[in-house]
Specification:
The chain is built from twelve helices and two strands; from the N terminus they run H-H-H-H-H-H-H-H-H-H-H-H-E-E. The protein is globular. The chain has a two-stranded antiparallel sheet. By secondary structure, it is mainly alpha-helical.
Length: 265
């Protein structure tokens, strides 16, 4: 038979010891899926390990949205009014307003924010890390809130808006999502950058045209531009990996009259 030497010994090199499977987890099933488009998608699906900030924040927002649907409407309204970052609250309780206003969604629908986080906050977090992504989110939320409400306060003081505008409910995570989109654009290739910024521009233009809301007209562009202003800072840290620790080699201690002996103390 071809391939057999005389005496029945198989031709070719002798097989070595069988090596254990060292591929990805979940065995051959996951290995079979991690090819082509499926591999690209699996590498970008948010997971608690890759996106602790994005998923954790979504969990908090989901909890407050569920509470708003199930709890007494008067109680929900009082809590949201206390958390609102409107001009009145910013003048009297600025820290509380800036912190708590970002833990509610404007309205009763949570699902659009899931996609918003999936396409802005989560990819930004994968590129720059959880701490920087959280910092971008907070900077955008605070900056856009202060700028938009400063315009409202100025309009009230000059008589262009009624005094009741100082108490209009102002809650939501849209500033955080938009600043993440603006920041993410700076880490993408130029085609992706144009797509991200173009999408933001179309969204903001549509809102300005269809909604008569001064806060939205000022706050949303301010959030995107804040993300753009953070490009240089984010690029310095994007893709940075900690240096591996070098293993310490025991020093050789000389011994009189013989070869050196390793000092393993």
């Amino acid at each position: 038979m071809a391939g057999l030497r005389r005496g029945g010994a198989p031709a070719g090199p002798r097989p070595g010891p069988r090596q254990p499977w060292a591929g990805p987890p979940y065995g051959m099933l996951r290995f079979g899926l991690r090819t082509g488009v499926a591999e690209w998608l699996l590498a970008r699906v948010p997971t608690p390990r890759r996106n602790p900030f994005a998923l954790g924040y979504l969990a908090v927002v989901g909890a407050t949205t569920t509470f708003a649907k199930l709890a007494d409407p008067d109680l929900v309204l009082r809590l949201q009014e206390a958390s609102s970052s409107d001009g009145h609250n910013l003048l009297h309780h600025p820290l509380r307003a800036l912190l708590l206003s970002g833990f509610w969604v404007a309205g009763e629908v949570w699902m659009p924010y899931l996609w918003g986080f999936a396409f802005t906050v989560a990819p930004l977090e994968r590129r720059v890390g959880s701490r920087r992504a959280a910092a971008v989110f907070a900077i955008g939320h605070v900056t856009a809130t202060l700028l938009s409400q400063a315009v409202v306060i100025a309009a009230v003081e000059t008589g262009h808006l009624e005094a009741a505008a100082m108490d209009y409910l102002d809650i939501g995570v849209s500033y955080g999502v938009l600043v993440s989109l603006g920041a993410l654009a700076g880490l993408l290739p130029w085609r992706g950058r144009l797509l991200a910024l173009g999408s933001a521009a179309v969204l903001i233009a549509e809102q300005i045209i269809t909604e008569d809301d001064l806060v939205t007209a000022v706050g949303h562009p301010a959030a995107v531009l804040t993300g753009v202003a953070l490009w240089r800072w984010l690029r310095r840290g994007a893709g940075r990996r900690p240096r591996p620790l070098r293993a310490e080699v025991p020093e050789a201690a000389p011994v009189s009259g013989g070869a050196p002996v390793l000092d393993v103390r």
